Amino acid sequence: MDNEALTGRIIGAAIEVHRTLGPGFLEAIYEEALAVELDHCGIRYERQKPVAICYRGRKVGEHRLDFLVEEVVVVELKAIQALDNVHFAIVRSYLKSLGLATGLLLNFATMPLTVKRVGREDSARLQPLHDAPISSFPDFLSS
Asked: Within a domain: residue 136?
């Protein structure tokens, strides 16, 4: 199954959870309910999957994904008033850490359910800070 079809099935499962429970619960309730719904749909997933965060080849920390679905889609759940740019950045960092391209950000606190597809930023545009030429630093850093 391609990522587009898989994300469609995940979104369908999330909509069913939201339709049944509605907004107003803690994120942990939605996580448990989504796990039940994914099981019901026959969709494989890992919950609270640990992801190592590395810097210069050394592990500097660890984060846990809400869901890694079929080993290819990161699913991050929220139960908050509104999504902020930092939530998208977090999903992109998970994608980068895992070498994946597709993520979903789901906010169960809104009516209707907020569903955002998140992709990795173009890695060709990004350059590690320590490798960047001095001319690419903002003027206030090079003086």
From this structure: no
